[in-house]
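Target chain:
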Amino acid sequence: MRSLDHLFEKNKAWAQRIVEQDPDFFVKLSRQQSPEYLWIGCSDSRVPANEIVDLLPGELFVHRNVANLVVHTDLNCLSVLQFAVDVLKVRHIIVCGHYGCSGVNAALRRHRIGLSDNWLRHVQDVRHKHEAALASIGNETLMADRLCELNVVEQVANVCQTTIARDAWERGQELAIHGWAYGIKDGLLRDLNVTVTNYAEAIPMYQAAIGALA
């Protein structure tokens, strides 16, 4: 229990594969990082950000939490967002949820799971906000899928409302915010058609995306 030697062995094998493909990869990587993308995703172990979009280390800046939430009082998320936008100058922010999310399912079914209930209260707020649309679906699995999508759209809206995104747009910085959903069963991404490239688009794109999911 004290030793995880098998993970060190896997690490050595992985590093060797990378070096075989590009002998100077780690030398170049150690000098700087200049990713174009910030990924805000779920902590779920089945949703590995880099692998899903087939990007190497250094190409994707990542923040993950349970149910891929962007909360305006979460200094962890906001610090990652600010560093990505102001320091790394990423051009794209991707909010990615996933079908079969345990956090979303718990919020939908009002299951109590412990301390995380306080965090998932934000997903419950999304559920309450769209309760009529969700109730009209009937099937619980489809309801969970729809809540996953609605949650992504709401989090995209939250990113747009941060001072970080708004300040970037005001100074003319190129920045696009996208909302996606990932299917664990097939490994494929779905674009939820809520891409915002300036503050004036934020509300119209939000309304259009919600309307498409209603």
